[in-house]
From TrEMBL:
Residues 11-65 form the HTH lacI-type domain. This is GntR family transcriptional regulator. It comes from Pantoea latae. The keyword DNA-binding applies. CDD domains: HTH_LacI, PBP1_GntR. InterPro entries: HTH_LacI, Lambda_DNA-bd_dom_sf, Peripla_BP/Lac1_sug-bd_dom, Peripla_BP_I. It comes from the Bacteria. Signal peptide: none annotated. GO terms for molecular function: DNA-binding transcription factor activity; transcription cis-regulatory region binding. Keywords: DNA-binding, Transcription, Transcription regulation.
């Protein structure tokens, strides 16, 4: 008869106590409130932890102190270079302050974001960082009832759920419109991804162009997630329309548009100019270098964590809304 092997058992607190020759109560105290234990005893406990491979239950300890040392972060994508620098800055600042990031990806669906936040709250994070300001009523109700500090990022509103670090997408669009007007462009086309923040930029751009009686010649939708191939396909869909500038909702789309323009024998910027958004790492190195809008993505992450941890520490946050601004970077493509 074949005897079925028992699955391996995770080391317990009692295993650590036996290895250290101490009581389970003493071991528990050493792990949860080490400042109350003699240094010699603490050293014995930590040696036993290493020997047994025991993993302390951080959640249980956190419940006792009402702190999990976890910050929940929800972003729409992790394969979008636009958010990568912000995510890294969030993580680096959290680690520096003794916290860890619990990262989740929601896509661009508000309902999915609400479901994710419900799950995250069951993990008892100390705070939440959300991307954008467009959330379902159910999500807002959940986070308000949880009474946790919340920071929304990558957007702008005078009435955030709690705190906000970002910039005005509508104002970005308006200033891009001013730039196009000043440069003498009068036949613009848009290659645009359909997400809420990009839509705000488009609205600001269109409103500014209307004031000068400039009409959008063509507008091509780029499917999410935005990609270089999506930019190529969108530029191809213009079908040699009589446009003098192509404005893209991201540098990734702009890069694809530039490649397709070259493939079609269209000179940039002589035949058609191209403008992006984000000032991603490749924008300056591309040939032609991409004219774009620079966002301090690292500052968004750093300031979001600092605001959240200040609130956790009981410190006053005099400015719950932080506008980091933006800058139009003129290069060769437009």
């Amino acid at each position: 008869m074949k005897i079925k092997a028992s699955p391996p058992r995770a080391p317990t607190l009692e295993d650590v106590a036996r290895a250290a020759g101490l009581s389970a109560m003493t071991v528990s105290r050493a792990l949860n409130v080490p400042q109350q234990v003699r240094a010699q005893t603490l050293a014995r406990v930590m040696e036993a932890v290493r020997a047994t491979g025991y993993i302390p239950n951080a959640l249980a300890g956190g419940l006792a102190s009402r702190r999990s040392r976890l910050i929940a972060v929800v972003v729409p994508q992790i394969n979008n270079a636009m958010f990568v620098d912000t995510i890294q800055a969030l993580n680096d600042e959290m680690v520096r302050q003794g916290y860890q990031m619990l990262l989740c990806v929601s896509g661009y669906q508000a309902e999915s974001e609400a479901e994710i936040v419900a799950t995250l709250l069951s993990r008892r994070p100390d705070g939440i960082i959300l991307t954008g300001i467009h959330h379902t009523p159910a999500l807002k109700k959940m986070v308000l009832q949880a009474a946790l500090p919340v920071v929304e990022i990558w957007d702008m509103t005078p009435t955030p759920i709690d705190m906000l670090v970002g910039f005005s997408h509508q104002q970005v669009g308006a200033e891009v419109g001013d730039y196009l007007i000043q440069r003498g462009y009068r036949k613009p086309a848009l290659l645009w991804a359909d997400d809420a923040r990009a839509a705000q930029r488009r609205q600001g751009l269109e409103a500014r162009l209307r004031r000068q009686q400039i009409a959008i010649v063509a507008q091509i939708a780029v499917p999410l997630p935005a990609s270089m191939q999506g930019g190529r396909d969108a530029f191809a869909a213009l079908d040699d329309a009589a446009v003098d500038v192509v404005v893209c909702s991201s540098d990734t789309i702009a890069q694809g548009a530039l490649i397709e323009a070259e493939a079609r024998g269209r000179r940039v910027p002589q035949d058609v100019a191209v403008m992006g958004f984000g000032d991603l790492a490749f924008a300056a190195a591309h040939r032609p270098a991409i004219t774009t809008v620079r966002i301090d993505r690292q500052a968004i992450g750093q300031q979001a964590v600092r605001a959240l941890l200040a609130r956790l520490a009981g410190d006053a946050v005099p400015q719950p809304v932080t506008d980091i601004g933006f800058e139009i970077i003129q290069r060769d493509s437009a």
